Amino acid sequence: MKEFLKRKNIEISVKRYLIDALGAMAQGLFCSLLIGTIINTVGTQFHIGFLTSTVATVAGIEYTVGGLATAMSGPAMAVAIGYALQAPPLVLFSLITVGFASNALGGAGGPLAVLFVAIIAAEIGKAVSKETKVDILVTPLVTIAVGIALSAWWAPALGTAASSVGTLIMWATTKQPFIMGILVSVIVGIALTLPISSAAICAALSLTGLAGGAAVAGCCAQMVGFAVMSFKENKWGGLVSQGIGTSMLQMGNIIKNPRIWIAPILTSAITGPLATCLFKMEMNGAAVSSGMGTCGLVGQIGVYTGWVADVESGAKAAITGFDWAGLILISFVLPAILTPLFNMIAMKLGWVKEGDMKLD
């Protein structure tokens, strides 16, 4: 069996499934749901007719350019997962159908259903790939059959469970914004720096509202915090790669000296409750944006698209200067000020020394 799994490149491990696959799923979401949301927002705000008009009508449903991208989120996630699992072409292409089915049947918790179903369908597809003389028939049939069966069997329950957990977190945040602001901000911020996908986690749990705002705060504290406090060592390249890219670049240094993580974590514990209690910052855009922080400014764009949607629906009267002040302070200013201050204290205590955050 070990020889067979090795020959088929089937690696049953936490890294393959919860790091590689989860990270790839977030990229699939970014290239479909998130990009579609951004396209719709740009079209609406700048009155670009091509981006706001219907370009296709399918089964009576009208789609804009952004709407088409958003509709493909299930297939995009599944194919991304298959790519991370190094699935052969026939398996990879068959996952398009699997992703569409599991995401549709999973409802609000569709991304979590896609993750589980796509992994199993891909691995079984890899197991039968090129084992028969009619591979072009067998591999797609097996991959799709397994994927559809699991989607019908598991996706609704997985979707409901994920949605329920997300709803519980969001409900708890509205009831206890201070405590939950700290918890959500710290936990999601840590997940962003770890080699897992905070964006995929937020998407799977449909984490929006105040809880989504706290998640954005935590991610920004990590990204901007590490970027600014390591500026002396990494200069402008490090500032951009961490502040607009990802704080995950510091993971190797964290393993060497975990205490360098203290400053951004403490910062997230402050900015989280400020976001929920003082500024009432909500993420009412795409849930995946909650776990993106300042990566490509996706978190800030997500908050803004939520404002726009709330104004259009009447849930919000207007976008105010206080809204903008909160977003800028939580996302950029406070992390850039607090994290270096906490790091200075850590250095005085001898916990951190110069060079500990140097990137290769």
Explain what this protein looks like in three dimensions:
The protein has helices at residues 2-7, 14-45, 49-52, 65-71, 73-84, 89-106, 110-128, 135-175, 177-193, 198-204, 209-229, 231-245, 251-256, 262-278, 298-313, 321-348; strands spanning 56-58, 61-63. It has 360 residues and is mainly α. The protein is globular, with a radius of gyration of 21 Å. The two termini are 40 Å apart.
Mean pLDDT: 93
Number of domains: 2
Q: How does the major sheet shape up?
A: 2 strands, antiparallel
CA radius of gyration is 21 Å
Structure class: mainly alpha
Strand order across the largest sheet:
1-2
Q: Count of helices?
A: 16
Give the N-to-C terminal Cα separation. 40 Å
Number of strands: 2
Q: Are there runs of 5+ residues with pLDDT below 50, and where? A: none
Q: Can you write the helix and strand succession as a string?
A: HHHEEHHHHHHHHHHHHH
Percentage of residues assigned to helices: over 70%
Overall geometry comes to globular
User: Which percent range describes the beta-strand content?
Assistant: under 5%
